[in-house]
Amino acid sequence: MVGRLTIKAFMTFSLICLLLTIVPSAAFSWGDAIHVYISDRLNAEHGYKNMNEMWGSLGPDIFNFIFDPNLCPAWLADQTHTDSFMKVWDKADTISEKALAYGFVSHNEAWGADYTAHVSGLTFGQAYGYINTKAMVLLNTSINPAEPHDPILNPKLGEIFASIGMNDEQQLMVTHVIAEYAIDIMFRNDVDPFIGVKMKVAALTRSKKFPALLIDAYASDYATTCDIDYPTAANIITSAEDEYRNSMVSYGKVILQFEPVAVQLIARQIVALAPGFLGGPLPIPEADAIELVKAAIYVSMEICSDYMTEINGTIEYVKNNLTNYGITY
């Protein structure tokens, strides 16, 4: 079980590592920048509809901000990723709602973008998903791959994590997240230096109808499942979406930084939140921990260097599936 905690002043990545034991692992997939890029390539090429499609594509992860187990975060994550993601499309009437819903549905794990990240990759990781498999590779890679593997002088990342008390599930979750955001950083460097701007603009300009669309799709069943009243359910959905928008604006700013700055910010935040994640103080000095995470990010960049082949394949895969399932407007 994994989860994300909102910290308005910073970025999405800092949210991911604090409460890794609360929301299902389905919450982790492609990074936010990649979801924005995929949706940017699917249908509307520019303008307000395109911004709404981009924001809609991030929508299924909105409820990852709900980390209180009494508020049924696992159920919400399942609804938006696998069980009932089509409800948003079914409730959409206006053009702006259709654009939001189009992006939302493109994210799903059954046959959308998250399928290739989590279930079966197209070019790599056919058995477990591209991101999942890259995370496994990262765990079994030495921090300095240029040196021969030596269990003492140059241990594998998984061995280092185990030595500081992380269990197998925690290790995989952390490397999963590192792989996602390593790809986001590489994508910003290699493909679209303005992806952070697009993310911010999509968050700031999305149609005001989106919270109501989510409420129409999920609030009634959510209230029943979680044994709360309907107004409370609707308020939780609205608040989660608002918090998510704030975090995406902040993360867009981080992605716009030069690579060394972005990596440093990400590593520093992971280490700052590590005591809460590990349930106690850092077992190594803070400066050493930051360097360890930075090294893992850079190693992940090497491991995931083929990312665009998988992403381009995912775009065509999702585009075809949207058409086949009648998701057009």
Question: What is the topology?
Answer:
Elements: H1 12-16, H2 32-40, H3 47-58, H4 73-83, H5 86-91, H6 95-106, H7 113-118, H8 130-139, H9 157-163, H10 168-190, H11 195-205, H12 210-226, H13 230-255, H14 259-278, H15 286-303, H16 307-324
Helix pairs in contact: 2-3, 2-11, 3-6, 3-11, 8-10, 8-15, 10-15, 11-13, 12-13, 14-15
Describe what you observe in this structure.
The protein is mainly α and 329 residues long. Helix 3 (47-58) crosses helix 6 (95-106) and helix 11 runs antiparallel to helix 13 (230-255). The chain contains 16 helices and no strands. Residues 1-27 have low confidence and may be disordered. It has one domain (12-324). The two termini are 36 Å apart.
Question: Tags for this entry?
Answer:
329 residues; mainly alpha
The largest β sheet comes out as: none
**How are helices and strands ordered from N to C?**
HHHHHHHHHHHHHHHH
User: What is the CA-CA span between the terminal residues?
Assistant: 36 Å
Which stretches of 5+ consecutive residues score pLDDT under 50?
Answer: 1-27
